[in-house]
Design goal:
Elements lengths: L7 H10 L4 H23 L6 H10 L12 H12 L3 H9 L7 H7 L11 H12 E2 L2 E2 L2 H10 L3 H17 L5
Antiparallel strand pairs: 1-2
Length: 176
């Protein structure tokens, strides 16, 4: 049996205990604030969304950056979360938040364990989307992230980000 969801203070303490740099902690807090804002609006529109899970997952999405600053931080963070006894829904947010998802082909190319790295639940999608809208701890337009991915020749990832943007904004009635 895994432990209950950590609250905000417990999640931030877990980041610090694992030696996440202060700028990573600040980024996670900014992503959590935007994720909560988005989740609250979705809930107000009648969608079923677990606000506490969104907050815990958003605060801990970059837990792996305590050890690694490559794309692999998602796998590292999921492993730390698992070893800590965090619930599976939080672990899934951590491992699926990168790039609006990582395809099976990309995961294989990266040498990741066989698994599903595409956000599935609304909570996973909200955190992944908010992460794309926060650069360090400042809000940026989604177009900035998409253009950056295109410049890096990551057009599939850019398409996934665009698709996620369209999905979330349509659920919000285009109000973010």
């Amino acid at each position: 049996m895994s432990s209950p969801l950590p609250n905000r203070e417990q999640a931030i303490e877990l980041l610090r205990k694992n030696h996440c740099p202060p700028q990573v902690v600040n980024h996670c807090i900014a992503v959590a604030d935007l994720s909560l804002e988005t989740a609250t609006k979705l809930g107000a529109r009648g969608l079923k969304i677990n606000i506490e899970l969104v907050e815990a997952g958003a605060l801990l999405h970059d837990l792996g950056r305590s050890k690694n600053h490559t794309v692999d931080h998602a796998i590292v963070g999921a492993q730390i979360a698992k070893e800590t006894g965090l619930p599976d829904p939080v672990i899934n947010i951590i491992k699926r938040h990168v790039g609006a998802g990582i395809t099976d082909e990309e995961a294989q190319w990266l040498g990741w364990p066989k698994d599903n790295y595409i956000p599935q639940t609304l909570e996973e999608k909200v955190v992944s989307y908010a992460d794309k809208l926060i650069d360090q701890s400042k809000r940026i337009p989604i177009e900035t992230e998409i253009e950056l991915l295109e410049k890096e020749n990551k057009s599939e990832a850019a398409q996934r980000v665009r698709k996620l943007h369209e999905e979330i904004t349509s659920l919000l009635g285009n109000k973010l």
